[in-house]
Amino acid sequence: MKQKPVPAMRKLNFDVLTLFPGILEGPLNESILKRGREKGLLTVTIRNIRDYTEDKHKTADDSPYGGGAGMVLKPEPIFKAFEAMKTEHPGERFLTILLSPQGSVLHQQRAEQLSEEKRRIVLLCGHYEAIDERVINALVDEELSIGDYVLTGGELAALVVIDAVVRLLPGVLGDEESAYRDSFGDGLLDHPHYTRPAEFRGMKVPDVLLSGNHAEIEKWRRREALKATLLKRPDLLESAGLTEEDQKILAELKKESSR
Ligand code: ADE
């Protein structure tokens, strides 16, 4: 088995700017994200954009100049929220990400980079509507999409980003290795998993997994990971960094499947 170096202790700080804080609160207070927060490995500050408006109706959006349907998020409250963050965290640097279907699509590699980010990560969520371009030009460093489909807003996408990034922080998942060994960690899909019983309704666990022979088990797992990737996501093989042995196994698998 390839050994990955054990990374040093890291902590991530997120600020999420949204009109709908309630969408984020539930998932952040469950399971691994909750535990990570309790362990002090991450902070997530949710800021309601409406709290930074100054009129009595707390207006965060307005109709578009030039006409047309839909609303546009106003620049003032968003700029104000940024000023508040800077005042609260003097001397800190910020990486501002706008969640948008027009952004570059989030991949594991970007999640890994973000898990090493030293700046506070600001996740700016639009909802239904557009954002005034001056916000994008002046405040946004990067636009990220979680896939080629349109959501009602950036909140679910922000949660996806937080989840994908935070699970890579050392200490967030119980077993250090598990973040690396499942799908995409090494550029391949995961191998199949089994637990007790060894036979269930006539379906047997592969003998090798019961053999106690760890070298053979690792060989089987690599082969199955290659097989799963070849069948389900052959596009990933191009950038997976395969060894000569992997290439040999792949050639065998291709031969088998063409029989
Ligand atoms: N907002 C709306 N759709 C989105 C998507 N696919 N990714 C990120 N943010 C979004």
Summarize the model shown.
With 259 residues, the protein is α/β, with parallel strands linked by helices. Helix content is 38%, strand content 18%.
Could you list the spans in which at least 5 consecutive residues all have pLDDT below 50?
A: none
Order of helices and strands: EHHEEEHEHEEHEHHEEHHH
Which term fits the overall shape? elongated
* Helical segment count: 10
Strand content: 15-25%
- Main β-sheet description: 5 strands, parallel
Secondary structure tally: strands = 10
Strand order of the largest sheet: 2-1-6-5-8
Give a written overview of the molecule.
With 259 residues, the chain is of the alpha/beta class. It contains ten helices and ten strands. It has helices spanning 21-28, 31-38, 75-88, 108-114, 133-139, 155-166, 178-181, 207-210, 214-232, 244-258, and strands at 12-18, 42-48, 61-62, 72-73, 94-105, 120-125, 130-131, 142-145, 199-200, 203-204. Strands 2-1-6-5-8 form a five-stranded parallel sheet, sandwiched between helices. β9 (199-200) and β10 (203-204) form a beta hairpin. α3 (75-88) runs parallel beside α5. The longest helix is centred in the last third of the chain and has 19 residues, at 214-232. The radius of gyration is 23 Å and the shape is elongated. It starts with 11 loop residues before the first strand and ends with a helix. The model has no long low-confidence stretch (mean pLDDT 94). Residues 99-101, 145-147, 149-151, 153-154, 157 line the site of adenine (ADE). Residues 99-101, 145-147, 149-151, 153-154, 157 line the site of adenine.
